[in-house]
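Suppose you are handed a protein chain with no further information: no name, no annotation, nothing but its sequence. What can you learn? This example shows the usual starting point.
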Amino acid sequence: MSKKKIAVITARADDHTQMDIICGIAEAAFFADTNVVVFTNIHNHWIKDEFLNFENIIYDFFDPKEFDGVIVTAEAFMDLSMFSSLYERVREAEIPAVVTNGEIDGFKSIYCNDERNMEELCEHLITVHNITDIDILTGPKEQTASHRRVSGCKKAFEKHGIPFNENKVYFGTFWYDSGETLAKRYLSGELPMPQAVMCTNDCMAYELCEILSAAGIAIPDDITVTGYDFIGDRIYHYPVLTTYRSGKRSLGVEAVNYLLSSDYQIEDKDRFVFGSTCACGTNPAQISNELRLERIGHPNTFLSSVAQLCSVQFTGDLTMCRTLSECTKVLGEFFYMLHGAEKLFLCLDKEWSSAEYSGEYFLCCPIDDTEIPPMPITVTKENLLSAAVGKCDKPKIFYFCPLCFQARLFGCTVLEYEQPEGYDFSFREWNKSVTNALEFLRMKNDIHYLSQCRRTASLYDALTGFCNIKELYRSATETASEKSGLLAVKMSFFSDKEYIYGDNYRSDIIAAAARAVKRACTNNEVCCRSDNDVFIILCNENSDRVFEKIKVILHHDLCGKYDENRVILSFSEHIGSCSQKETNALCRLVEKNASENSELILQRELLPHYKNMLELRSSIVSSPRSAPDTAAASRKLCVSEGYFRSMYKKCFGISYVQDCINEKIMLAKYLLCTTVMSIYMVSLQCGYDNEKYFTRQFGQNTGCSPIQYRKRFYQNADDI
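A reasonable first move is to predict its three-dimensional structure. Written in structure tokens, the prediction is:
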């Protein structure tokens, strides 16, 4: 009979907090003779980056019907709602489900005893250090954990008859930026410096201490600071933080006991972690133990002379591989770099080397330290779990991780461990080396790519890879029809402006623009770069689709990074026959448009507040969801709202509010035509809390709904 399996949905499983929870889960599951399968991304999902967030596709490999229970570690995710479809699948499968330190409808919620822990930590400050003036920095206002931790402090205050002031509670993000923000408010004099600040997690406390210390504030002489949750890495921060272990391992055990109706117990000790940010000072035994764990868990840090040489050799050998067979052999030779792993399964999409990811069939390559790796087997996505996990004599823990090169998904890796501990940060670099090697291997075996390269010297522009104008004329003569289309894109630069990448900043921008155009095009267009920085795109079918995508992606990739004082984009289109005469006329037209746009900018520079207005507009273009309202924007420029609105429209020819809306819509267009992100997630990314309102405003500005836009302009629109 197959062993039971429970799934764990988490992020950055190598993070100290997640490792503690997962170790507790594994210990309790092994006690109950049950396998554990962890689904996790690799990098920091809290960073708003389209490539890093693409890793979240790993959760699509989770099929609830394959498991006897599931645990979601809520604190690992910035927004639990982004995986609402996953939770719905769990509910439909009717398997028992647990969420730790969070709330999901239909799931059993299990919390650390944050309230009691924070009460004990607060009592320490009051009774041992005679501190009564305490500020509290906690997480988001809408999260339950934020309030539970503050409630513990409040109980300690009431126990000792100290009035509790709600105004001394500051809500943040549970991330480093909150500690930095509060520190700057103290240093600027906006807030009075208290005797102590209690941070409800370590990240915020680390940054608070470092900013205050850098400004000359003595900790703990001038102010005492405490953290919470003990995420580790204390030895890399100054001063060494006083914090508290919240019992994450016990939390994992409790979750498994609920799912499996078992009664496994562990000893939970050393909860109070002494440091230099309170007057108690560090505990030598605790510091010694942390250093020992760092030596075990981070061998590259302490054995750099050997480990780095191995890493360089590993990357070099992977780069030289010409076939997938050679690649798997190298992975086997360097398998020892995966500390403690019993086996690795490299599960590649069967079409991994093609332009599109299918996700239907996978090549499953088992890899360990044997000299010759076994031949890969082909399995369907539905059978991937059973192929990787298989039958085990004793319970094990498996980690499903994504194999992504930017927005290209190759498949996933499955790591197998016999011990609860093992998976660590070193896998991140290992995974990165493998994905780079796979992309390099894919390119080396792309015959079309190689044939294009052979013609580059005589027919193609070396910087962009586009053909020259004569080659465009030839292609237009041979292939263009009455339904053809031409798009001209002119890049204008101000030579007297400050260089941003040394003397070659134009080349960087031109290359970035070429990459953006290539992203929008299919294999049917002919792209040309003229001598005066004009891109000409010849399209023989679906011109409106391709041209719209080019404009949207160029706006996102260039205008979101470079303001109008660095580069100006001008466009002209022509639909119909594309002879040399029409092409030359289009080039003259786009040059004229570019000249008019440049003149407008020269006039704007004479207007008051132009520099500040441009800085504001650039921030809106790069991050429209963070655009301030009119009142906040006018305060930032120290002018009245009426004057601000008037000057903004005079400067840019559009009202501030409409400009913000336009940039949100442009970002939405970009996400709709380049990603498979749901409409709900697109609306959130663009700063809309209400999906219906987003849909209505999108329709008002584009004449179609978001779904209709995606069906028309997404590259795989025919598959939707």
